[in-house]
Amino acid sequence: MTEALPVNDTSAVKVPTLPDAQTVTAVKHWTDHLFSFRVTRPASLRFRSGEFVMIGLMGDPHPETGKQKPLLRAYSIASPAWDEELEFYSIKVQDGPLTSKLQHIKVGDELILRPKPVGTLVHDALLPGKRIWFFSTGTGFAPFASLLREPQTYEDYDEVIITHTCRDVAELEYSRQLIENLKSDELMQELIGPENLAKIRYYPTTTREDSPKMGRITTLLQDGTVFKDLGIDGMSADTDRAMVCGSMGLNTDIKVILEGFGLEEGANSDPKHYVVEKAFVG
Ligand code: A2P
Prior knowledge:
By secondary structure, this protein is an alpha/beta fold. The protein contains 9 helices and 11 strands. It has helices at 99-102, 142-147, 151-156, 173-184, 186-191, 194-197, 217-222, 225-230, 248-260; strands at residues 21-29, 34-40, 52-58, 70-76, 85-91, 110-118, 131-137, 159-166, 200-206, 240-246, 274-278. The strands form 2 sheets. The protein has a 6-stranded antiparallel β-sheet. Strands 9-8-7-10-11 form a 5-stranded parallel β-sheet, with helices on both faces. The longest helix has 13 residues, at 248-260. The protein is globular, with a radius of gyration of 20 Å. Bound molecules: adenosine-2'-5'-diphosphate (A2P). Adenosine-2'-5'-diphosphate (A2P) binds at residues 137-138, 165-167, 207-208, 216-218, 246-247, 249-250, 253.
């Protein structure tokens, strides 16, 4: 019994509505460790493709007071700014405070969504360029799932390269299907245009399970494999822009590589050549 509910009210058995509640509209489990879900979008929520929000559930009641506190984590919005719903892509951590519960959500359930979007992986944080690179590992693909469905990405750039590195092939399925569907979807053809969708170059790699392209993206950049595979002459601050989202290791290591090509880190208030955000683990 929470303090908000009178003791003698029998209708009080139903679960109280969460603050900032949104309703789950779809859930898809990709592997034992990865799932994506969609929720209703608050009418007042405006965000820029690539930003993140805090989402979560109510924590367990306090053993003495019975009070419940929201358990919130940062999640990149994987859907584009124009979408009527919001999509998220999450890891499942068996003993994770939030994702151990969140992984069991079903259509019709409610979750908490604080409508205050923020983030650095936005077009405003980059100077104009010719080619944009999206570098991701694991669930770090999420903000790019948004940006790849964002028309501005194609207005701003002639080429859009998305790299996704995971341990195993199955972990690449979300990005693979999203990009395949993007290219064949009628709405996307209309909204973004086939000539713009043709700008996408998908570069998936695995590090532990055999696949057509193996290796960390950092290694493949350093030894020139990526450029050879894509028929590109390296990167330069004149033409190339980059956004990075992955593990701390990726973010740290790739910065050195990008700086080596002469790119400088930008921010919303100071646009430059590349921006970085860590992939959020729930
Ligand atoms: P690896 O298998 O060689 O560690 P995780 O599942 O640990 O979040 O990692 C996701 C992917 O990111 C894995 O393929 C992993 O490769 C890769 N990765 C981890 N650290 C780095 C790093 N410092 N630079 C590039 N890729 C990395």
